[in-house]
What does this fold into?
Amino acid sequence: MSVGVLERPGTTGAPEPSGGVPARRAMVRWAWRLFRREWRQQLLILLLVVVAVAAVVVGSAVATNTPPPAGAGFGTAHDLATFNLSTPTAKSPSRSPAAVERQIALLRRRFGTVQVIENETLTVPGSTQTYQLRSQDPRGPYGGPMLQLLSGRSPRGPKEIAVTPGLASELNLQVGDTWSQGGKTVVGIVQNPQNLLDDFALVPPGQLQHPSQVTVLFDAPDSALKTLPAGLNVATVATAANHNLINPSTIVLALATVGMLLIALVSIGGFTVLAQRRLRALGMLESMGATDRNVRLVLEANGVIVGAVGALAGFAVGLAAWLAYRPYNEQSAHHLIAVFALPWKVIVPAMVLAVVATFFAAGYPARAVTRVPVVVALAGRPAPPRQIHRSLLPGVIALVLGFVFFSLSGAQRNGGGATWLIPGFVALVAGIILVSPFFLVLLARIGRRSPVAVRLPLRDMARYRARSGSALSAISVGVLIAVVVCAVAVARYSNAFDYVGPNLAPNELAVYTPPTGPTFGPSGESRPATPAPSVSSQQDTARAIASSVGARDVYALESPAAGLQNPSGSGRQWSGQIYVATPALLRAYGIDPSSIPSDVDVLSSRPGLAGSGVQLTYGGGIGGNGGGGSSLGPGGPGGPGGQGGTNPCPPGSCLAHPVVQAESRLPSGTSAPNTVITESALRRLHVAADSSLQGWMVEGANPITSAQITNARSVAASNDLSIESKNEAPASAEIVDWATVFAIALALGILAMSVGLLRSETASDLRTLTAAGASSRTRRSLTAVTAGGLAFLGALLGAVAAYVGLVGWYRSNPLEGGLSDLFDHVPWTNLFLIVIAMPLVAVLVGWVLAGRDPSGIATRPME
It folds into this structure.
């Protein structure tokens, strides 16, 4: 009897060593089955990707939709011509109304249909705010998207008007009321959907006698625009769009890239632990003939699956959050936003970045697993970590490059240095990643002679640098961003000359006297000054305003015939008003006038002004703003700066070295009397008689409400006064505190994930220690030291890298105070919270949450 064996038909070509497409398809299917079975073990990485992508969707939608749209002001037209009317002169005859009519007729002949919109600027009675009296046809050919009727009807005759909701609130008007500034009847409420802050009163076309600005909407071919007269100010939708490289979309995409980098750094540890858990299965796969490429494909495909699922889920969560937040964003952005107005050019790359980040994060442990021998893998014993000796030099070079890029950014003018910030941040992040392993090894060497409960976790962090190094880098990058924000905010807000921040306290109200001198009409014609109310009448009105807001304290603000200027012609110049330190003003803030030394010239609550070398100008040397000196440009009054980039200080009109005394009891608001000149200084300079009444400061016991502000504005308008209330500008403490919270929360979150991964990989050591009699205190120390060591190194490394970039920027930026501005205003409290307090919290949390007996002391648990 014979047995025949059928041979497999021969193939036309040699088989691929890795099994070809069928093998790769089988590996991908296995990776998918593993993900479905073990998705809970990868939930941490999934949540990271979901949160990051959802944040990108919401953040990019808010960032790109908050600015007004590119076509705002154009309606449905593609072209817009603007004419600012003024009294015609020999040099500019084209600004006369007749010349504007001729140019409009030219546009109508050349391009056919046009729509003319006229505006006249008016002031809200009792306030410094302005609004437009607008003549526009609601049924015009192009202006439809710029006008929306909310209630009532559109005005039709010369005695009718419609107002926006904001203006109706300011003027206390409703449909059917009479507009006090023109005697017209309000027949409707309208708004500009493209700009909800556009406060205007609408009248029918042809109802403006003296428009100050005329806008013409039309459509024209690009080639035809080149043939128009050179004097026409024509803009197109394309030119109005933001084509700057540094725009909200680019910023959000850059932040998304940094976020995905953090995800990749944190995910490396998670995928490494998963690879160790699957070590036996992967060893079995290799014993059956799978190549190293097949094994890597399993883990890399798993990373792609995790990234893709997380990106899709994150997009769904972000879209739902955006749909819920869109109505609130319309209120804050002050224009209507379409439901699906999403920046796809930012969202799609961010989703791709999420997949790429998890792919590379899974690829690192995939390459490490393929180096484990098959027998060792089948035994479930991970190979001892390889000792990789990397040089510190590449990391130092990257940090130096970051310093150079930040220096180039600070040396640019007019915002041109923003393009250097991106490579600067990239270099700093790369430097952090490259130097992190070195500091882990250094920390282990420092703790060589420490107790075993301290020495063991420090040694493990140096041994398992794949996990601890990525976690350290992620913590450092988060701290880097927060420290940059803290340092820049504190230094900028502490600039003694260009002071920024909130204008007034919530319980303060500034009342200003009527303007003096001639005024100008809407067509540029000079009008004689109207008689101002008497000072006693103005004082009575100021007291009535104080009574309307429930305040009792009212004190006068006098403007001196003197000003201040920065001695440096290249730095930031003086901004803000200064006042006379009258006895009543000083007593209002609890300062005894007799306690002020007679040689003191200036009192100020501005930080650093006392040692800034400020110059005091007076008489003919003051700026043109009535003493504030804000009009002083480089070189001060009279022309360009002198030699060496300094402002001239001629004797007789400038005091080069006034005595400035810091006084913290003065208010800190930018519009409040934060800087005052003493009466004795004005007498010495012989300008005491030239001071003038500027207004009054009203202080209440409680914050002033919006309803009280509206009433105060009405009272002020009755006597031609104006008021100023607190604005929405953030204080330095708000920015710095939120940045500190961000750094601490991010670092603790990364620590919670990384420490768990690191301790799970060293579970065998922990079981051995427990079997040898290690107490719960020892086990708690292991986790606490791991958390504290990573937190301290990450905070220190991130802070150092941040100041490397900041030193480069401040040393070359002429508008700031140089390195003294940076080092004189170090946020020590916030740095202490980040560098010292945060690691201590990590140690405490690690100690409290650790200490449980490990399961399976006698045998190694099966995965």
The chain is about 50% helix and 10% strand.
